[in-house]
Specification:
single chain, 326 residues, 14 helices, seven-stranded mixed sheet, 29% strand, alpha+beta
Length: 326
């Protein structure tokens, strides 16, 4: 495998080969891709919540998809992926900063979910339930949206696609095909082993063609064969291969795509980091009417829990009132 010099220099920073984003290109077909592997990051996020397995599985898939999509963009700000729907899992929210810090949470209805879990049966098998049941079973009808926010002086970018297919990766493939006219393949795998969560994802895209490429395709060149071959290899990926920490990321890419020549580029890290703080909580409480604060208070104190990281902030009502006067 040919290696980009900068990726070789950075290799020492990623000896564990996990919680990384590995960009690459297939030389023979000019396909571009991202391989994402998350270990401690996804486990840390999920372990902060007492989610049922099917919810944790879906959130892990969404986290991986967020990293794949955000890492393919050039932005300075926050990338957000969100679902809203009318099923057992009514909302999933993930955001990732341009520096690679990610966080996320899910909301669900316990009664609706219990009925779905009974229908799904064994949740501990090799194939995860969200990929068996389809989005309609666990999310219901709704949409998936992703937004890039670069601050007040830059126009926000937003993409929206209907929740269709067997998983959220299918939604993204549909979005790129319909809205961006980009052929895209995405595979995401999630595994819980001995109580520890791991996740991985791989995205391949065929870049927009110029006129000469279109003419060559009509004349019967090898580009279409290369795309089909790449999709077959992508579809052959097992969960174990995708998340196995003993299989280096670059070895996995070589195993899949060596026939077309794999060129890897500078890889980047992913970290879990929540932006909640006592100051942000105080600013939020300052915006509430005094009557609402008093209704929410117990023994003249408020407890506010961050939905992303489950950190609990205890704030006295007198402290909020004093802060308003300053």
């Amino acid at each position: 495998m040919e290696s980009h010099p900068s990726s070789e220099r950075l290799q020492a920073s990623f000896d564990r080969d996990t919680d990384i984003i590995q960009p690459f290109q297939l030389e023979a077909t000019n396909l571009r891709g991202r391989l994402v592997r998350m270990d401690d990051v996804v486990d840390d996020i999920l372990s902060r919540h007492d989610y049922p397995v099917v919810v944790a599985d879906l959130l892990a898939e969404a986290l991986t998809l967020t990293v794949i999509l955000a890492s393919a963009l050039k932005y300075d700000g926050i990338f957000t992926l969100q679902t809203r729907s009318d099923g057992p899992i009514s909302m999933v929210v993930i955001d990732m900063t341009s520096s690679g810090a990610i966080r996320g949470y899910a909301k669900f209805d316990e009664e609706k979910l219990a009925a779905v879990q009974e229908e799904l049966g064994d949740l501990d098998g090799i194939d995860r339930p969200s990929h068996q049941a389809g989005l309609s079973t666990i999310l219901g009808g709704g949409y998936l949206a992703f937004t890039v926010d670069q601050g007040a002086h830059t126009e926000r970018y937003q993409g929206i696609v209907e929740l269709t297919g067997s998983n959220m990766a299918d939604c993204v493939v549909n979005y790129f095909k319909q809205s961006e006219q980009l052929d895209t393949g995405v595979s995401i795998k999630v595994e819980q082993h001995d109580g520890h969560w791991r996740a991985g994802g791989l995205m391949l895209q065929r870049m927009p063609e110029d006129q000469e490429q279109i003419i060559n395709k009509r004349l019967g060149n090898d580009e279409e064969d290369g795309w089909r071959r790449a999709m077959v290899m992508l579809g052959s990926l097992t969960t174990h291969e995708m998340v196995d920490p003993a299989l280096p990321a670059n070895d996995l890419l070589y195993r899949l795509f060596n026939e077309d020549g794999v060129r890897v580029f500078e890889r980047h890290g992913v970290s879990r980091d929540c932006r909640c703080s006592r100051e942000r909580i105080m600013n939020m409480l300052n915006g509430l009417p005094t009557e609402a604060l008093e209704d929410m208070a117990v023994d003249n104190a408020l407890e506010v829990t961050c939905e992303f990281c489950s950190t609990v902030y205890s704030v006295g009502v007198p402290e909020v009132m004093k802060n308003r006067e300053q």
